[in-house]
Design brief:
Elements (H helix, E strand, L loop, with lengths): L2 H4 L5 H27 L4 H9 L18 H14 L1 H20 L4 H14 L3 E4 L17 E5 L2 E11 L7 E8 L5 E7 L5 E4 L13 E11 L3 E4 L13 H23 L13 H30 L8 H26 L9 H11 L7 H13 L2
Parallel strand pairs: 1-4, 2-4
Antiparallel strand pairs: 2-3, 3-7, 4-5, 5-8, 6-7
Length: 386
Amino acid sequence: MSYLYDAYIKNETQQKWFSKIDILASKFAERADKHDREGSFPFENVDELKKAGYLSLTIPKEFGGEGLSLYEFVLLQERIAAGDAATALCLGWHLGCFLELSEERSWKEETFRSLCEKVVNNQVLVNRAASEPATGSPTRGGMPQTKAVKRGDDWVINGTKTFTSMAPALDHAIVSAQIGDTGKKGNFLIDMKQDGVTIEETWDTVAMRGTRSDDLVMKDVKVNDESLVEEERGKLDFPKAWLLHIPACYLGVAVAGRNEAVNFAKSYKPNSLPGAIAEVPEVQRKIGEMELELFKARELLYSTAAKWVNEPESRMEMGPSLMAVKHVATNSAAKVVDLAMRIVGARSLAMSSPLQRHYRDVRAGLHNPPMDDMVISSLAKRALNE
């Protein structure tokens, strides 16, 4: 499997981190089926990543973190996802928050520093809570129904957030809300242990079961003025490069599916053939198609991540390209897993086969932001506005 990663590891720092994560991801793979069956959160995986210092990966060095870039972020996330997709997707949201905040510096420095130091020193987990039943994906721009009203010197927040990944393990949530009756929205930093914050265990899906993306319910949650960490900035928002953790995650699932199929093809020897099915031309064709899908999607992912890192002056124009990576990668990942199941055949449908889990998990990527229609529309507008 080494050639799948060797081409993308460019220096000693990346090799050091990859070697560390490679060992952990192999352990995660052994537990993935259990968490999928139970719909349980992989606390032990997260604990091992905490001990490895992974939660500080994208926190700036000046605040005690590793200060690694978008490129390292997606490289390591892909490897974790090949072991356990739910663990990777969860940590992707946490690390992505800090990568975005590190690059944009949109918060007050002392507030950002304080949160970073909590992660470095206390290993706290953070995620954004933005999705709601009435608005759908926050990337479509709907106004949140969650509302923050000023009462004296404090804000009082009421509302419900859906798809709150890592809900049972979160220490803090960055919650989007309407700011009073201003027609504007802002983000509030919420302590998950404070009064009025509860989790409703609503997560009951066929895919990414271990993410425990339950509902976050806030009833008369009182926070001080400093908790309003960010107000709406309008059309000057940076492209969301940190969302590349999404395609990285689903490509990791595809790699896992590919490995299952290749190993099966080399070892399965039905008595109707003189050797393993790997010698059958049609099986070889399907394996070649898997390799081609992975190659084109991963090249696009890593070249785009490298451009973001190496050409900061180009970032404001990279929005459509970043969106295109997600579209290509998630659709290619779904095709790879489908091909893997065609190679293995009916055995891939057995609950004991990892392929049926990969098949369910990879479908979730099609519903993570940005959606396919938004990507196509964005690319069309760029072409027509030249």
